[in-house]
Amino acid sequence: MGHIQVLLFVVTSASALAALTAIFSAIHVMTDISSFQDEVLTDLSNFKQYADDAWGVMVRTGNSPGFRFEQITGRIPTQAPILKLIDGPTISRD
């Protein structure tokens, strides 16, 4: 009967040690996940700041008078409506 009690003690101790190891491992993983989440949120905040700054620059430069298609290419786009007067000159949209 003594051998069975020793074996039972060893198995129970090993099981308790495995359970404690699993609990501490789970806590460690949760801590790592929490720190990763904080890092991601910080990076997203920085990205949002960069994106807002870039958007502000694009909107500011978007209000400046740009070049018209005719100025760049030297021709009128084919989709532009053209008005042909009866027996008169052709007038394009300008």
From TrEMBL:
One Pfam family here: Col_cuticle_N
One GO MF term: structural constituent of cuticle
Repeat as UniProt keyword: yes
Protein name from the UniProt record: Nematode cuticle collagen N-terminal domain-containing protein
Domain of life: Eukaryota
Database matches in SMART domains: Col_cuticle_N
Annotated InterPro entries: Col_cuticle_N
Record organism: Caenorhabditis remanei (Caenorhabditis vulgaris)
Alphabetical keyword list: Disulfide bond, Repeat, Signal
Domain Nematode cuticle collagen N-terminal: 6-58
Signal peptide coordinates: 1-18
Keyword Disulfide bond assigned: yes
Subunit: Collagen polypeptide chains are complexed within the cuticle by disulfide bonds and other types of covalent cross-links.
